[in-house]
Design goal:
three-stranded antiparallel beta sheet; alpha+beta; two-stranded antiparallel ribbon
Amino acid sequence: MIRKLALALTAVSLLAGCKSTPEPIEEPKVIEIKFDPIRNCYPIEMLQKIDIPAVTKTVTAIVLIDNPPYEPIEREEERIVEIEPARTAYINPEGVEVTNICPNEPEEAPMTDTSG
């Protein structure tokens, strides 16, 4: 009886071993998604150029020049101090200043035959 039971267990374990072999897995399919690139800058043709002049301030400076053995020479001079330099700004059609301007893309040169 033990012999039949051992034989039955061996047969069952052999059949179970065959079923546990995994089937080959199919390679995943690659799906290609094509889309147009998103521009997060403004082409310069869409923008209006504005020249902003420099911000200046006129100040009075007192200059002392040593003049020994006499009194120092005192002189007042007016000087113009530049607070903000002049700059060029670009605004979009809504009137907002834009700093993210697209770089100019080089135009393709026509191909010429150089083989004399």
